[in-house]
Recover the amino acids of this structure.
C-alpha cells in the first residue's frame, strides 16, 4: 500500500505543464500566464487631473479669493497640448491631460464653477490633485509575473498596458467518463438495480473549479474493450482523462480489465479512506489518466487529493492541495489505523476561531453528507482517536 503523498508525488513526477498558447484577453480569463507582462509605457502615460476642476498655477493663488479668466475646457481625451499663460485657468475634467503651464488642479467644489472667469476660494500647492505620469507603473516594469492566474484584476492590468493577447497555459481539457452497467443519465427513467450517473457531472464541475475545461462523456458499460476504444478516441482531444468505477476488487472491474497487462496504467491501493483503489498512468506516453473509484464520495475526495493538484501543475501553478485550517473538533472521532482519513464536515468560524462538526454519515456512497459539507477533516494514518475539543486540520472545499 502507498501513502497519499507517495501516490501524489508519483503522479506529479510524470506530468509536464501544458504548452503556452496566445489567447485574446477575455479567453485568457482564468488561465495562467506563461510569461511576464511588462508595461510598454508609463501609467498614467501623462500627467492628468484627479478631479473635475480648474488647472492653474499655484503661484496665481497667493491672494484669495482669486478671480482668473478661463481660457477653455480640457476634457478627458483632449487631443491638444494647448498650455495656459500665467494668471489664467482652464476648466479640466478627471483624466484630462494637465495643460502645459499649469501645476495644480483646484476642484470645482472650491470655486464658483464659472465658465468665463472663475473665482477660486481656496488655494493649494503645486501638484495638488495631479496624477503624475508613471505614478502607477513605470515603462518597462513587470506588471504581471509568469505563473499568475488571470482573474478580473489581472486581466484589467493587462488591458491597461495595452495587451490584446496573452501568452498563457490553456485550461487543461479533461475528459470525464464514468463506467458501470447500472448507470443512467439523470432525466431518464430508472429500472430496478439502476442508478443515475452522478460522478461524471460532479467531476466535470470539479474540473471547472480547478481551472480545467471539462469534457463530459456519457458513461460506458462494463465492457473492457469498449472502455479501451472510447479512451483511445478521447485521446485526440484530451489533456487529461478521469474515469470512475471499475478499479476495486470485484470481478467486473472494467477499467482495471481494460488496462490489464498493458503496463500503461498502474493500479494501487492508497492508504486513505475513502478512495483506497487508485490508478494512474500516461496514455500514449503523454496523456495523464486518473482512474478513480466509483463510489461518489471516494471519487470526489480522490479528485481533490490527487487530480486537483495535478491540474494545477498542468496549468503551470504550484500543485497545492485544498487550503487547510486548524479547527476545534466538536465531537470525538475514531479513525482507522494506517489510513489517512478524510471526513466530511461542517466548518464554522465564530469569535475568531474555527470549529468543525463531522457529518454523521461517513459512507463513501453517502452523497447527501458530502453535498452539505464545506470541509474535509484530515486524520493522519497514525492517529486512531481524536478527543472531543482537539485541534484537527480541515481542508476547505471549493464553494
Ligand atoms: P465500482 O467501483 O464500479 O464497483 O463502483 C462502486 C460503487 O459506486 C457502486 O455502488 C457503483 O454503483 C457506484 N458508482 C460507480 N460509478 C458511479 C457513478 N458514475 N455515479 C454514481 N455511482 C456510481
Ligand atoms: Mg462499476
Amino acid at each position: 500500500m502507498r501513502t497519499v503523498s507517495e501516490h501524489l508525488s508519483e503522479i506529479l513526477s510524470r506530468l509536464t505543464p501544458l504548452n503556452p498558447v496566445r489567447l485574446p484577453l477575455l479567453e485568457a480569463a482564468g488561465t495562467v500566464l506563461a510569461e511576464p507582462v511588462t508595461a510598454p509605457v508609463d501609467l498614467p502615460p501623462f500627467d492628468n487631473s484627479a478631479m473635475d476642476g480648474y488647472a492653474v498655477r499655484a503661484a496665481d493663488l497667493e491672494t484669495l479669493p482669486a478671480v482668473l479668466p478661463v481660457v477653455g475646457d480640457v476634457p478627458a481625451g483632449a487631443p491638444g497640448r494647448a498650455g495656459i499663460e500665467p494668471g489664467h485657468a482652464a476648466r479640466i475634467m478627471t483624466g484630462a491631460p494637465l495643460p502645459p503651464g499649469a501645476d495644480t488642479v483646484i476642484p470645482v467644489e472650491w470655486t464658483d464653477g464659472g465658465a468665463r472667469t472663475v473665482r477660486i476660494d481656496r488655494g493649494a500647492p503645486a501638484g495638488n490633485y495631479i496624477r503624475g505620469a508613471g505614478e502607477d507603473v513605470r515603462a518597462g516594469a513587470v506588471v504581471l509575473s509568469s505563473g499568475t492566474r488571470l482573474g478580473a484584476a489581472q486581466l484589467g492590468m493587462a488591458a491597461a498596458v495595452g495587451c490584446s493577447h496573452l501568452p498563457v497555459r490553456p485550461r487543461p481539457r479533461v475528459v470525464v467518463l464514468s463506467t458501470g452497467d447500472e448507470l443512467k443519465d439523470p432525466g431518464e427513467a430508472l429500472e430496478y438495480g439502476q442508478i443515475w450517473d452522478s460522478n461524471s457531472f460532479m467531476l466535470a464541475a470539479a474540473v471547472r473549479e480547478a481551472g480545467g475545461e471539462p469534457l463530459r462523456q456519457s458513461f460506458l458499460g462494463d465492457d473492457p474493450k469498449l472502455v479501451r476504444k472510447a479512451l483511445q478516441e478521447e485521446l485526440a482531444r484530451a489533456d487529461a482523462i478521469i474515469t470512475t468505477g471499475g478499479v476495486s476488487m470485484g470481478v467486473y472491474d472494467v477499467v482495471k480489465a481494460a488496462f490489464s497487462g498493458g503496463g500503461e496504467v498502474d493500479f494501487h491501493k492508497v492508504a486513505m479512506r475513502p478512495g483506497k483503489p487508485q490508478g494512474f498512468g500516461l496514455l500514449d506516453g503523454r496523456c495523464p489518466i486518473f482512474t478513480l473509484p466509483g463510489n461518489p464520495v471516494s471519487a470526489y475526495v480522490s479528485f481533490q487529493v490527487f487530480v486537483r493538484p495535478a491540474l494545477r501543475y498542468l496549468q503551470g501553478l504550484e500543485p497545492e492541495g485544498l487550503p487547510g485550517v486548524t479547527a476545534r473538533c466538536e465531537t470525538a472521532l475514531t479513525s482507522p489505523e494506517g489510513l489517512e482519513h478524510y471526513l466530511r464536515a461542517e466548518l464554522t468560524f465564530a469569535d475568531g476561531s474555527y470549529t468543525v462538526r463531522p457529518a454523521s454519515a461517513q459512507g463513501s456512497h453517502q452523497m447527501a453528507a458530502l453535498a452539505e459539507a464545506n470541509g474535509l477533516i484530515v486524520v493522519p494514518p497514525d492517529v486512531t482517536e481524536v478527543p472531543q475539543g482537539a485541534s484537527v486540520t480541515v481542508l476547505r472545499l471549493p464553494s
